[in-house]
Design a protein that fits this description.
By secondary structure, this protein is an alpha/beta fold. It contains 11 helices and 8 strands. The chain has an 8-stranded parallel β-sheet.
Length: about 280
């Protein structure tokens, strides 16, 4: 057994990121410093449906520049805009008004990513999460992503679709079929190994299918039907097998860690990365 396989793979990744909600700190300067001190190179900025997070889509160029400077001063950058607000305002909604809001959110998230120097906007693989569903939800989602892809291509930003928890894009095959049907070079996958496991799938086997179309890989742990706040090592993800798949694929792309720091634990981000770095490639 080689106890440093996880460490070698993470060291060879193009960049290591951490989800904003995993960081403790009263302000952005503190959060960026915490991310850098823990060993991360980029932060994933949340745009959920809360008024505070949605307001980020209206940041002026001055505010965007200030955010970039704050991150750079700490030794990190904003690498991803996580557009989870589409959970509430999905492209696959039954009504035109909601789909128009989904378009507006995507457009502004792409502009924000470009302004912050982020590489990608992460899109949720929900066709329609809340409200009534209809037979054409998937088709509406595909057309929405294609519209966003035109803007993303113009702004030099990629779109990365995440496999989700419980509905619509669940498996790697769901995701790869969707990407091929969307058929836009700037649209890739953002496979989340925890969501695979939480849906009762073999995370490593699913990752093997997803990696050829992946823009980045997301790490979290999960239990069956429990997709959040599961400590690393306490869930169903077979981490040695996941790292073995990454090694076999010679993965050198970005990787990120998704967690929720509800208690302001200043050690959480560093502890998670240390745990993953100690993961062997084979079970004990």
């Amino acid at each position: 057994m080689n106890p440093s396989t996880g460490g070698r793979l993470l060291a060879s990744a193009a960049a290591l990121g951490i989800y904003e909600k995993a960081l403790a700190g009263a302000d952005w300067a503190a959060r960026c410093s915490a991310a850098a001190a823990a060993g991360y190179g980029f932060i994933e900025l949340s745009v959920d449906d809360s008024p505070q997070k949605l307001a980020r889509l209206n940041w002026s160029s001055t505010e965007q520049h200030r955010m970039r400077q704050t991150a750079a001063a700490a030794g990190v950058r904003i690498g991803t805009i996580v557009l989870s607000a589409h959970r509430t305002y999905p492209w696959g909604a039954a009504d035109d008004a909601t789909r128009e809001i989904a378009d507006q959110l995507a457009s502004r998230a792409i502009d924000l990513a470009a302004g912050l120097g982020a590489d990608r906007v992460q899109l949720a693989g929900y066709f329609s999460f809340e409200g009534p569903r209809h037979d054409h939800a998937r088709d509406c989602y595909i057309e929405g992503v294609r519209r966003a892809a035109r803007l993303a291509e113009h702004r030099g930003v990629r779109l990365a679709i995440e496999n989700m928890d419980g509905t619509d894009v669940l498996s790697a095959t769901d995701a790869t079929d969707l990407i091929r049907e969307i058929d836009r070079d700037v649209v890739r996958l953002y496979p989340d190994v925890g969501n695979f496991a939480g849906n009762g799938l073999d995370a490593a086997a699913e990752l093997r299918v997803a990696l050829p179309l992946a823009d980045a890989v997301q790490f979290k742990d999960a239990r069956l039907g429990e997709f959040r706040r599961v400590p690393f090592g306490d869930g169903l993800v077979d981490w040695p097998a996941v790292f073995r798949e990454l090694s076999n694929a010679a993965w050198r792309g970005p990787a990120s860690i998704e967690m929720w720091n509800d208690d302001g634990d200043h050690a959480m981000a560093a502890d998670a990365l240390d745990w993953l770095r100690s993961t062997p490639s084979t079970a004990a």
